[in-house]
Design goal:
heterodimer; A: mainly alpha; 76% helix; B: elongated
């Protein structure tokens, strides 16, 4: 197996496990727990500066999406759609690769990364992230 | 390659690599021929200390990963707010090593 693939797999596994654990934790306590101080606020940016970061509200968004609230999910933070897709897709993709003894996820990842580094798409994405960040400011997170 | 040139390269660029690697690089540099000097002298490496500072300040936004060229990981970090904060902390310790690895890969493209 390619060395980069092993590294990617390790990181993905940690992210998936951490992601599901975090989601599980949040589904069993009130979504306002963080604001009330019952669980730590994850975002460093917020702790240090008091301002939200571009992904603030993603957890709440994913929970809304899981309840079928497509609009709320988008309004809380569009990243929720991306994170939810990742949480569902990546384990399935990993299983596919595992059983068929392929490296398709790694290959796709390497190609996608190369494309992004070319620049044009990157600028569009950066603009979208900044817009999302500014929106978070307006929402008063 | 001429040992003076090799020493000059090591002097200017040693800090961009892992200590263990510098010895291997030096030996390899002595083996290759002088025609590679032009390509070598134009190589630009990322400073691990800069990566660390960026990681400490803006790690949750994935900026540290972006600047060393790990675009995919940077996006993952950004979407998850520094991997729920945990990845951000882990990277404070890992980013220097990661930068040096990236520098080594870049150098190896010319060396081999």
């Amino acid at each position: 197996m390619h060395a980069g693939n092993t590294k990617l797999l390790r990181i993905l596994l940690l992210l998936i496990i951490g992601g599901y654990a975090w989601l599980f934790l949040n589904l069993h306590i009130s979504p306002d727990a963080a604001t009330r101080g019952e669980i730590p606020t994850l975002c460093f940016v917020k702790q240090v500066s008091g301002y939200p970061c571009p992904s603030c509200g993603t957890t709440r968004s994913v929970i809304a999406l899981l309840h079928g609230n497509w609009l709320d999910g988008f309004l809380l933070n569009p990243f929720g759609y991306l994170v939810l897709t990742g949480l569902l897709l990546i384990p399935l993709w990993l299983l596919y690769d595992f059983f068929l003894k392929k490296e398709s996820l790694w290959i796709w990842y390497a190609k996608a990364e190369h494309q992004l580094q070319k620049g044009k798409l990157a600028i569009v994405l950066i603009a979208m992230v900044m817009a999302n960040w500014i929106w978070n400011f307006y929402k008063g997170y | 390659m001429d040992s003076q040139k090799v020493d000059m390269f090591i002097l200017t660029n040693g800090k961009y690599f892992d200590d263990f690697q510098v010895q291997v690089i030096r030996e390899r540099l002595l083996e290759i021929d002088d025609s590679k000097w032009a390509a070598l002298s134009t190589l630009q490496f990322k400073d691990p200390t800069t990566s660390l500072i960026v990681s400490l300040l803006a790690g949750s936004l994935g900026v540290d990963r972006f600047i060393i060229g790990d675009t995919g990981l940077g996006i993952g970090k950004l979407l998850t707010c520094g991997g729920l904060g945990i990845w951000a902390i882990v990277d404070w310790f890992m980013i220097k090593g990661a930068t040096k690895e990236k520098n080594l890969t870049k150098l190896q493209q010319i060396l081999y």
